[in-house]
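Hello,

I think I submitted the adenosine monophosphate job twice by accident. Can you confirm which output corresponds to this input? Input:
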Amino acid sequence: MAAISATLEATAGKATSEACMLIVFIGPPGAGKGTQAKRLLGYLGIGHLSTGDLLREAKAAGTPLGKLAAQYMDHGRLVPDSLVLDLVDQKLRESQFNKGCLFDGFPRTLAQGCSLDASLAKRGTPLTLALELRADEEEVVNRMLRRAAEEGRADDTPQTIAHRFEVYHQQTEPLLDYYRFKGILSVIDAMGTPDEVFERIKIAVEKRRAK
Ligand code: AMP
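Support: Only one job matched these inputs. Its output is below.
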């Protein structure tokens, strides 16, 4: 994580609160994070850092990290923090993140959240906002099964989906209280059309920006 902080410190001069939006996107698997993240990126013009995408790329490329990560991903388990933090560290060096970043699927554990916060605190630009996409579990499972069929995702079987929910409840949900306590959590109702959900997200972002 020290390297993440070095990377972020290097861009600290550009990271005024107005210019730099740092947003964390949290929600159960299948809640529409990917879809909404793309829209929000277009709206804010900041970089997108999806650890799920990065891990899938590494897996498809057959890199050593990808092969190791696949052993966890294929069983719906979280990839160890050290691997994910290395990946995030490398990615954040890119200049596309100078104006801000939408963290998608990261942090996924309280430990990852604390590591990220420690780095951001050092450069004086704390997270702007944590968005929780809250969706009905049954609807979310249906979305995931549809997506698995469309995209041929091997990690989306009924068994791994159930396990990913368990992991979300046990390991990721504690982050919500953490961000609520810090006063930066906005809960977004993720039920409805993508347009409706995005309107809610925009309202939450603008409300935060106005503070
Ligand atoms: P996602 O596309 O975000 O649902 O991620 C797909 C899979 O990648 C997850 O089920 C995990 O196995 C792994 N993964 C993605 N992000 C993380 C993270 N921040 N920490 C640990 N594992 C992750």
